[in-house]
Amino acid sequence: MSQENVEAFKRFADANNRRDVEALLAELDAEVEWHSAVLRSLGGEATVHRGHDGVREMLRDLYVRSYLDPEDALVDAAMRD
Prior knowledge:
60% helix, two-stranded antiparallel sheet, 7% strand
């Protein structure tokens, strides 16, 4: 993998962690085809999301938060009630 690809992946991962959809899309080709393994693993149908609009739609539909500290998850959940 070239250093350029490594840097692009780091920018992509950083944007994903910040939930910055526009910065994430900036690292993807405009004609991207995203095959969602997450939806399939949850029992959904195999779906291909095409282009930036398709990725935006997928990210809107797939709203997942991860927590390393269970207390952080409980605090966030309490704020939503």
